[in-house]
Amino acid sequence: MSRSVLVTGGNRGIGRAIAEAFKAAGDQVAITYRSGEPPEGFLAVQCDVTDAAAVDAAFAEIEEKQGPVEVLVANAGITKDTLVLRMSDDEWSSVIDTNLTGSFRVAKRAAKGMLRLRRGRIVFISSVVGMLGSAGQVNYAASKSGLVGMARSLARELGSRSITANVVAPGFVETEMTEVLPEEKKAEYKAQIPLGRYATSDEVASTVVWLASDGAAYVTGAVIPVDGGLGMGH
Ligand code: NDP
């Protein structure tokens, strides 16, 4: 059955791969983008997740054009890395506002429709860094581990209505976000990954699609690592 899916930040990177994977599975897929030309083949809605009114308007448009969101993937995220003593309040709060509060805004809005439908799947894209910590990323790591507490609370609040909430925690994935890392840093990270390589966006996407599938109906409040073994034990 074709479902109404929304992937925030589905215009590029991991989000784009997730959107393509749902589309390939036969779902109707909406994506958010902020500027530029969104990819074709999706219901593209302009939306900045830091803006609650824009989130509400995006959902209203999706509900009208493809029905209430049954599968939400909160993927939009940013980094603003620097060492703690140099980190400004703005670098802290903009990362929290986008990655954590932005995910809250879309999950809250999606829950409204899912409660009415009495079914739904919410998947948050976190990071291995949320569990392991990362020097230079106190803002990002805090935002990503915050998603775990949020997902688990939603799992408890919404479970009786057959709504699941889970977290996918990728390790390093080849996208524009990691492209900017210096080569020696990349080699250093790779040396710590048991599988010895970065993930592809498709490898993250297949896990997200599985969490939204019938086969994962009894999985909720889980943190699923897709990190080549980097975070084992967390
Ligand atoms: P990219 O930088 O390639 O893409 C980020 C996406 O988020 C873009 O679609 C961007 O939209 C969107 N976005 C950013 N800020 C906002 C906002 N305020 N409102 C709406 N959309 C926004 O990143 P990745 O694809 O690599 O990352 C996707 C997710 O995966 C993020 O949450 C990231 O933290 C997480 N992740 C990534 C890893 C990696 O190694 N790459 C590892 C672990 C987790 P726009 O095009 O408009 O800027």
Automatic annotation (TrEMBL):
UniProt enzyme class: oxidoreductase
Top-level taxon of the source organism: Bacteria
Assigned keywords, A-Z: Fatty acid biosynthesis, Fatty acid metabolism, Lipid biosynthesis, Lipid metabolism, NADP, Oxidoreductase
GO molecular function: 3-oxoacyl-[acyl-carrier-protein] reductase (NADPH) activity
EC number(s) given by UniProt: 1.1.1.100
Matches recorded under InterPro entries: 3oxo_ACP_reduc, KR_dom, NAD(P)-bd_dom_sf, Sc_DH/Rdtase_CS, SDR_fam
Catalytic activity: a (3R)-hydroxyacyl-[ACP] + NADP(+) = a 3-oxoacyl-[ACP] + NADPH + H(+)
The Ketoreductase domain, residue ranges: 3-176
Pathway involvement of the protein, from the record: Lipid metabolism; fatty acid biosynthesis
Database matches in PANTHER family: 3-OXOACYL-[ACYL-CARRIER-PROTEIN] REDUCTASE, SHORT-CHAIN DEHYDROGENASES/REDUCTASES FAMILY MEMBER
SUBUNIT field: Homotetramer.
Family stated for the protein in its record: Belongs to the short-chain dehydrogenases/reductases (SDR) family.
Function: Catalyzes the NADPH-dependent reduction of beta-ketoacyl-ACP substrates to beta-hydroxyacyl-ACP products, the first reductive step in the elongation cycle of fatty acid biosynthesis.
Name under which the protein is recorded: 3-oxoacyl-[acyl-carrier-protein] reductase
